[in-house]
């Protein structure tokens, strides 16, 4: 089943994340998207467009699928691949979560600041 809920927040957002198998961020423009970081932290295999700092989060083929913006063919192929390949979904879920925890958590930021100030 597919769901396109639009803008959600609070408990509603947590409910969607808890029930999701795949997260797709097909933006034309981004900075460092919180929604993608939240999805990856929740262990959701992700597909996103290569805009802004998205490539700091998704390493294509390692932590998720990175596609070019406005490329419907790449998006379609990525969705199909994650639907049929549970092992790949699990890999991206695990590796994506690890990447967020090691590079974008409060603990990793604190460690980086300690190194800068010492």
Describe the model.
- This protein has a three-stranded parallel β-sheet, with helices on both faces.
- It is built from six helices and three strands; from the N terminus they run H-E-H-E-H-E-H-H-H.
- The chain is mainly alpha-helical and 118 residues long.
- The model has no long low-confidence stretch (mean pLDDT 92).
Unreliable runs, pLDDT <50, ≥5 residues?
A: none
CATH architecture, please? 3-Layer(aba) Sandwich
Arithmetic mean pLDDT = 92
Q: How many individual domains?
A: 1
The helical percent reads 55-70%
Radius of gyration: 15 Å
End-to-end CA span: 51 Å
CATH fold description: Rossmann fold
**What is the string of helix and strand elements?**
HEHEHEHHH
Biggest β-sheet: strands ordered side by side in the sheet: 1-2-3
Number of helices: 6
**Proportion of residues in extended strands:** 5-15%
Classified by CATH, the class is Alpha Beta
The CATH homology group name: Glycogen Phosphorylase B
Shape: globular
């Amino acid at each position: 089943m597919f769901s396109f809920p639009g803008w959600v927040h609070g408990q509603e957002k947590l409910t969607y994340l808890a029930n999701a198998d795949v997260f797709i961020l097909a933006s034309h423009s981004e900075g460092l998207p919180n929604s993608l970081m939240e999805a990856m932290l929740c262990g959701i295999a992700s597909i996103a467009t290569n805009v802004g700092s998205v490539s700091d989060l998704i390493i294509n083929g390692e932590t998720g699928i990175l596609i070019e913006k406005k490329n419907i063919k790449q998006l379609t192929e990525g969705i199909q691949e994650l639907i049929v390949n549970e092992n790949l979904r699990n890999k991206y879920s695990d590796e994506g979560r690890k990447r967020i925890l090691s590079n974008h958590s409060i603990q990793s930021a604190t460690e980086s600041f300690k190194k800068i100030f010492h």
